[in-house]
């Protein structure tokens, strides 16, 4: 507005240029003080704060609870959207643990996980949809015992923030649930005694990686 009040004559050109320079400097300063726009960031699952558990009926009396204790995974997460993509998770099938040695050894055999031939269980995300402020669904391909089937996870984004201890890294925490049929993956042994439906429970923290 100040520049517009000055006639554009040769006598006033230096003043116009000075005002324009000041205005440009102010604009740059204002832009520099704005927070950087959020961008999708890669996260790595924290192996020390991760639970991959499952529940399956045993003869209808109760559900056996087990877990896989070794896994690794990465994904891309945009907190502002929120949105998640590029999910890649690998689980060591040999790490199955139901707190009973004989049962665990049987689960590793051909009738169930067949870990000698298929040492890894993998999940690769293919789509994601937001259903609420902190909830959503993630669709992906689960490969178990050499068979790949689509699976849909119901996901809750619990929290993101600077870790209060240690190296003060930026962390995000999630809970996820899904239900699969083991027969869909070729595990038909003892159907009727051991349930077909398997509840999957995921609880984990993830660490944001350097850009």
Features:
single chain, 211 residues, Lipocalin, 2 domains, eight-stranded antiparallel beta barrel, 52% strand
Task: Please give a quick description of this structure.
With 211 residues, the protein is mainly beta.
Overview of this protein structure:
- It contains 2 helices and 10 strands.
- The longest helix is centred in the first third of the chain and has 21 residues, at 13-33.
- Strand 1 and strand 2 form a beta hairpin.
- The protein has 211 residues and is mainly beta.
- It has helices at residues 13-33, 101-107, and strands at 41-58, 62-68, 71-78, 83-92, 96-97, 120-130, 135-144, 147-162, 170-181, 194-208.
- Helices cover 13% and strands 52% of the residues.
- The chain has 2 domains: 3-33; 41-208, Beta Barrel (Lipocalin), CATH 2.40.128.
CATH superfamily of the largest domain: Lipid/polyisoprenoid-binding, YceI-like
The residue ranges in which pLDDT falls below 50 over 5 or more consecutive positions are 1-37
Strand order within the widest sheet? 1-3-4-6-7-8-9-10
Give the class-level CATH name of the largest domain: Mainly Beta
> What helical percentage do the residues reach?
10-25%
The largest pleated sheet is described as: 8 strands, antiparallel, barrel
How much is the average pLDDT? 87
Strand segment count: 10
Class from secondary-structure proportions: mainly beta
> Roughly how many Å is the radius of gyration?
27 Å
């Amino acid at each position: 507005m100040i520049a517009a009040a000055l006639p554009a004559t040769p006598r006033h050109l230096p003043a116009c240029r000075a005002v324009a320079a000041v205005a440009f400097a102010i604009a740059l300063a204002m832009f520099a003080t704005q927070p950087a726009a959020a961008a999708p960031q890669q996260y790595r699952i924290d192996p020390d704060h991760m639970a991959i558990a499952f529940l399956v009926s045993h003869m209808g009396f109760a559900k056996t609870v087990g877990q896989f204790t070794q896994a690794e995974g990465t994904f891309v997460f945009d907190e502002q959207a929120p949105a998640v993509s590029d999910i890649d998770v690998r689980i060591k099938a040999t790490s199955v643990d139901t707190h009973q040695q004989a049962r665990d050894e049987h689960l590793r055999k051909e009738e169930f996980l067949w870990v000698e031939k298929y040492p890894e269980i993998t999940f690769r995300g293919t789509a994601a949809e937001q259903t609420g402020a902190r909830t959503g669904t993630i669709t992906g391909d689960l490969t178990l015992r050499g068979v790949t089937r689509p699976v849909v996870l119901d996901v809750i984004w619990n929290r993101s923030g600077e870790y209060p201890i240690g190296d003060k890294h930026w962390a995000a925490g999630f809970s996820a649930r899904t239900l699969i049929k083991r027969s869909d993956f070729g595990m038909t042994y003892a159907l009727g005694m051991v349930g077909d439906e398997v509840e999957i429970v995921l609880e984990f923290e993830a660490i944001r990686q350097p850009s």
